[in-house]
Specification:
Length: about 80
C-alpha cells in the first residue's frame, strides 16, 4: 500500500473518529494525521474489531466548460479484501 507523508489531516482524522464514535463504534487506535492513508483500528459494539483504511481528501471543484459552477468531484471506492490466513 502506497503511503503519503506530510499530510495535513488532523481535521479529517478527527471527523472520521467522531463519525465512528457517533455510530456506536470505538476507536481502538487512531492514525497519525500526517501519514495517508489513515489506518484506524475500530471496535464494534459486539466486540468485533476491524482495520479501517481511509484515503480521505477534500473534493475538488469540477471546472469544465458547460458544467455548473458549484459542481465538485470526488471518488469513492468501497471494497473488501479478505484473506484465509
Amino acid at each position: 500500500m502506497e503511503r503519503y507523508e506530510g499530510v495535513r489531516g488532523q481535521q479529517r482524522v478527527e471527523a472520521i473518529a467522531a463519525a465512528i464514535e457517533a455510530s456506536g463504534g470505538k476507536v481502538v487506535r487512531a492514525p497519525s494525521p500526517s501519514v495517508a492513508p489513515f489506518e484506524f483500528e475500530v471496535q464494534f459494539p459486539d466486540g468485533k474489531q476491524l482495520k479501517l483504511v481511509c484515503y480521505a481528501f477534500t473534493a475538488n471543484k469540477y471546472d469544465q466548460k458547460g458544467r455548473p459552477l458549484d459542481e465538485h468531484r470526488l471518488q469513492v471506492k468501497v471494497g473488501f479484501h479478505a484473506s484465509r490466513d
